[in-house]
Write a structure and sequence with these properties.
This protein is mainly α. It is built from 5 helices and 2 strands, in the order ββααααα. Helix 2 (33-41) crosses helix 3 (50-69) and helix 3 (50-69) packs antiparallel against helix 4. The longest helix has 25 residues, at 101-125.
């Protein structure tokens, strides 16, 4: 991970790529909730409601955009906490809904992966803010 100090804020390619990917995924989920829901669930009959997919898309768009707009370890740490909370909620859904279990477990896996990367980035960037 190569870090550069820009305007008192640590910027790495990963610290930019992760929130950019979140924002782009959010846009995709907002625009095409049906196909993404079916892809997550594996079948149209078990796809999460489009409104739920859009809500997830909105959350990812806002989270990614906010982390890009306010770079630094604090924003990355908040993003990690949001992802961890989402991952935990998806484990609960997977535990109570057989119908949505696959989509919930995929969401949890992605959320916890993002949490791990964000937490690592936040730790690596401590002390870079002026």
């Amino acid at each position: 991970m190569t870090a550069t100090k820009t305007g008192g804020t640590c910027r790495t390619s990963l610290a930019v790529a992760l929130p950019a990917a979140q924002a782009l995924l959010g846009v995709a989920l907002l625009g095409r909730p049906g196909p993404f829901g079916r892809a997550l669930s594996g079948a149209a009959a078990t796809a999460p409601p489009r409104s739920v997919v859009r809500l997830l898309g909105f959350r990812l768009l806002v989270q990614g955009a906010a982390t890009l707009a306010l770079p630094g370890p604090e924003a990355i740490g908040v993003s990690a906490a949001v992802d961890a909370t989402h991952g935990a909620s998806m484990l609960l859904v997977a535990g109570v809904s057989r119908r949505h279990r696959r989509a919930a477990l995929i969401n949890a896996l992605v959320a916890f992966g993002s949490t791990a990367v964000s937490a690592r980035l936040a730790t690596a960037h401590r002390g870079w803010r002026s």
